[in-house]
Amino acid sequence: MSQIDEQTRTELEAAAFRRLLEHLNERTDVQNIDMMNLTGFCRNCLSRWYQEAATARGIEMTKEEGRVAVYGMPYDEWKAKHQTEANADQLAAFEVNKPADAG
Hints:
By secondary structure, the chain is mainly α. It has a domain at 30-95: SMc04008-like fold, CATH 1.10.3340.10. It is 68% helix and 0% strand. It has 6 helices and no strands. It has helices at residues 6-26, 32-39, 43-56, 63-71, 75-82, 88-97. α2 (32-39) crosses α6 and α3 packs across α4. The longest helix has 21 residues, at 6-26. The chain is globular. Pfam families: DUF1244.
């Protein structure tokens, strides 16, 4: 891979993150619990990481503001529109594979 300067690398990473959010917003059929069970992270994790990054840079951001940045709307609204009830298999898999910092 060719040499990429730090600014360009940051811009590429930001573009990839924005595309990931677009993809997740297009795939509202994919439930957070399924993402957690398969990948160990979900939209809530992304929103928490986003909030943590803001805080690390001295930017005050609430949990809800971080979620709006990822979900594109308030979390309660997203849940009402897109979240389904987890079934027993999903819940059992989550308990087995739940990351220590899942929240």
